[in-house]
Design a protein that fits this description.
Blueprint: E1 3-7, H1 12-23, E2 27-33, H2 37-47, E3 51-54, H3 57-66, E4 73-76, H4 77-86, E5 92-95, H5 103-111, E6 115-118, H6 121-138, E7 142-144, H7 147-156, E8 165-172, H8 190-193, H9 203-211, H10 213-226, E9 233-237, E10 243-249, E11 254-258, H11 264-272, H12 303-312, H13 318-334, H14 342-353, H15 362-382
Parallel strand pairs: 1-2, 1-5, 2-3, 3-4, 5-6, 6-7, 8-9
Antiparallel strand pairs: 8-10, 10-11
The chain binds magnesium ion (MG).
Length: 383
């Protein structure tokens, strides 16, 4: 029976992971969250992990009191996250924390040769080369949870010779602002950006879907996961989110993975791979399926995607700068401090301001991330 450590258990992917774990009869070794103690307590009582971690020290103190009558141990901070990622009882670690904060625990889990069910795309974007190299050296498996990368993983499975792959085709829903132009988005609000047409996700990724930065991050994630150069990856807007991505081979065969938009399917596959088990996600009814459409993304309106594609072509730290700047700028947007189009402006400012350099070590990645966040603060103060 699989025993899972779940980093980020109270977020959207975390809660859906627990659905899958419960339905498939797996057990939970550890759960972690930033500060949602009420939900952490509820999850700890239901799943009885060995360890429950709140990143916030104050939240951890509260959680400890709440769980005093249970055998569940409580820990805090980055040390707690790393302990959860490396528990000897856990064979698989789901990394569903949001943002760069997932990097150190992911590397720690790789060091212990855990299977990584990777739902923390920022980790691969910032430190993709470092993470993949460390995984290769340790013989740790990284199985993607992101729906597009899970689709690519499934379409690549029957053909392990990457020399035969002509192109990876990432599909994009287009987000809530599809079809809009820059002038339509001048007054776009947080509430508008958070109305995603197909997927239900957390606030950060939903904002990234509205700016299309999410697809840019996924483009970089695909490069790292499948060791593909940027010219062999393309993006097509597919509004229905039925095809989750495709692989085109040198004989022009195109394989697509389809299904209802439900994250529980890629989560489940990352846990059970190479086996498939009875579905938690819903069945697809082809006869009720809307017509499938494909279009070019609009890089003039959605500048974040253009910036990500530029960063993807550059070696070293530009992707870490892009990601750090985006996390900081989206933070401002979600606090209603900047307008929607300013997210791309601040990211661009940081990309120009922070010196480009190597990203071979954890220290170099963290330094690029910190410098990018600082540049966004500075750009924000100057506006
Ligand atoms: Mg995705």
């Amino acid at each position: 029976m699989l025993n899972v450590s779940l980093l980020g258990s109270t977020g959207s992917i975390g809660r859906q992971s627990l659905d899958v774990i419960a339905a498939c009869g797996m057990s939970v070794a550890a759960i972690t969250a930033n500060s949602s103690v009420a939900l952490l307590e509820e999850q700890a009582r239901q799943f009885r992990p060995k360890l429950a971690v709140a990143y916030s020290e104050a939240a951890a103190r509260d959680l400890k009191v709440r769980l005093a009558d249970t055998p569940v141990r409580v820990a805090a901070g980055m040390d707690g996250l790393i302990e959860a990622a490396t528990l000897s009882e856990a064979d698989t670690v789901i990394t569903s924390v949001v943002g760069m904060i997932g990097l150190k625990p992911t590397l720690a889990a790789i060091g212990e040769r855990k299977r990584i069910a990777l739902a923390n795309k920022e980790t691969l974007v910032c430190a993709g080369e470092l993470v993949m190299r460390t995984a290769r050296e340790n013989g740790a498996e990284i199985i993607p949870v992101d729906s597009e990368h899970s689709a690519l993983f499934q379409c690549l499975e029957c053909n392990r010779d990457r020399g035969e792959v002509k192109r990876l085709i990432l599909t994009a829903s287009g987000g809530p602002f599809f079809g809009k132009k820059r002038e339509d988005l001048l007054n776009a609000t947080r509430a508008d950006a958070l109305k995603h047409p197909n997927w239900s996700m957390g606030a950060k990724i939903t904002t990234d879907s509205a700016t299309l930065m999410n697809k840019g991050l996924e483009f970089i994630e695909a490069m790292r996961l499948y060791d593909m150069p940027p010219e062999k990856i393309s993006i097509t807007v597919h509004r229905q989110s039925i095809i989750h991505s495709m692989v085109e081979y040198c004989d022009n065969a195109v394989l697509a993975q389809m299904g209802v938009p439900d994250m529980r399917l890629p989560i489940q596959y990352a846990l059970t791979y190479p086996r498939r088990v009875k579905a938690v996600a819903g069945e697809m009814d082809l006869l009720k399926c809307p017509p499938l459409t494909f279009e070019e993304p609009d890089l003039d309106t959605f500048r974040c995607l253009a910036l990500a594609l530029e960063a993807a072509k550059k070696p070293g730290n530009p992707c870490a700068i892009l990601n750090g700047a985006n996390e900081a700028a989206v933070g401002f947007f979600l606090e209603d401090k900047i307008r929607f189009l300013e997210i791309a402006e601040l990211v661009e400012y940081a990309m120009e301001k922070v010196p480009h350099g190597p990203a071979d070590t954890l220290e170099q990645v963290l330094a690029a991330d910190a410098a990018a966040r600082e540049a966004v603060l500075e750009g924000f103060a100057r506006r």
